[in-house]
């Protein structure tokens, strides 16, 4: 099986999508991509793990080939719900969870809420402190935060997604965001990340509304308490050139019962793209040395 199988499943009133990489008799492993991304961003990990696991990679709601929400609201509990529904769709009570950024945060929350349903968890840049610009917003009084969110939602409802005249132009944008990418990987990410329009041009598949963060969420203390409920071993991967803080230094590692940190000094936020061979080796070492049955 050189290419994964495309599958759709329902999650409440949305039609969501995932890629199935085969090997259904093996332990299930779910790959969760980050925000403004898509499941095929994790192909290298899927290819490197499908010999030992039944790998499935969903497009999160509002991303890839999954539905956008009608109201443009994307709340953390909904992503957790979608993951629970995905496991039901593949007939798995529990699974190994590997997630990048937003996907890592979803995996960790799911594992804290349902400790018995997570066999192992690997969070790629999914634990570090909130980005400085967002933290500055969240620390303001609620009347300012909520008013700004209302304005953002109203503006996004009328916004026309940017169009790119060609795949090459869209690929240039991808490479500008992450200058560690090789041209081949950038082209792959772009090809699976855009939607072609019959009247000309390409737009990104993700819903622009994903960029507007809800003004309410659990507190940092509550989030850390959830991490403390995780019963399985956890791998925390950190890129030395990322904006995210190092979980070994910021106190986050200590919130887990069993967590280890692996560092990639020359990688940024997308460390699985920046140092793919080294990261896959570290991930396989973690996953295959721990019991998953």
Molecular structure report:
The protein is of the alpha/beta class. Helices cover 36% and strands 19% of the residues. The chain has one domain: Rossmann fold, CATH 3.40.50. The protein contains ten helices and ten strands. An eight-stranded mixed beta sheet has the order 1-2-4-3-5-6-9-10, sandwiched between helices. A two-stranded antiparallel ribbon has the order 7-8. Helix 2 crosses helix 3, helix 3 (102-113) crosses helix 8 (220-228) and helix 6 (167-177) crosses helix 7 (183-193). The relative contact order is 0.15.
Structural class: alpha/beta
Q: Strands of the biggest beta sheet: in what spatial order?
A: 1-2-4-3-5-6-9-10
Number of H- or I-type helical stretches: 10
Number of strands: 10
Shape: globular
Question: Keywords, please?
Answer:
10 strands, 10 helices, alpha/beta, Rossmann fold, globular, eight-stranded mixed beta sheet
Set down the secondary structure blueprint.
Elements lengths: L4 E7 L2 E7 L7 E5 L10 H7 L4 E6 L16 H14 L5 E6 L1 H12 L4 E7 L7 H7 L3 H16 L9 H11 L5 H11 E3 L5 E3 L15 H9 L5 E6 L19 E6 L6 H4 L1 H14 L4
Parallel strand pairs: 3-4, 3-5, 5-6, 6-9, 9-10
Antiparallel strand pairs: 1-2, 2-4, 7-8
Helix pairs in contact: 2-3, 3-8, 6-7
């Amino acid at each position: 099986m050189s290419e994964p199988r495309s599958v759709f499943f329902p999650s409440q009133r949305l039609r969501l999508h995932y890629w199935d990489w085969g090997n259904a008799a093996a332990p299930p492993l779910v790959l969760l991509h980050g925000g403004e991304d898509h499941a095929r961003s994790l192909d290298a990990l899927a290819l490197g793990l499908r010999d030992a696991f039944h790998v499935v990679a969903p497009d999160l709601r509002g991303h890839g080939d999954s539905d956008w929400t009608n109201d443009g609201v994307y709340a953390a509990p909904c992503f957790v719900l979608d993951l629970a529904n995905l496991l039901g769709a593949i007939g798995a009570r529990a699974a190994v969870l590997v997630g990048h950024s937003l996907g890592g945060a979803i995996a960790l929350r799911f594992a804290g809420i349902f400790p018995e349903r997570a066999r192992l968890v690997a969070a790629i840049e999914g634990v570090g402190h909130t980005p400085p610009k967002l933290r500055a917003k969240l620390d303001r009084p609620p009347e300012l935060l909520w008013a700004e969110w209302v304005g953002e939602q109203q503006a996004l409802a009328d916004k026309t997604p940017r169009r790119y005249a060609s795949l090459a132009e869209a690929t240039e944008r991808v490479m500008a965001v992450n200058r560690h990418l090789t041209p081949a990987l950038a082209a792959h990410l772009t090809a699976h990340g855009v939607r072609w329009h019959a009247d000309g041009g390409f737009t990104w598949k993700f819903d622009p509304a994903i960029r507007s963060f809800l003004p309410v969420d659990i507190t940092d203390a509550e989030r850390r308490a959830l991490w403390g409920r995780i019963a399985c071993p956890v791998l925390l991967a950190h890129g030395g050139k990322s904006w995210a803080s190092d979980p070994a230094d910021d106190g986050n590692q200590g919130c887990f019962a069993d967590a280890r940190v692996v560092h990639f000094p020359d990688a940024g936020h997308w460390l699985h793209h920046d140092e793919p061979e080294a990261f896959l080796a570290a991930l396989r070492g973690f996953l295959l040395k721990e019991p998953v049955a």
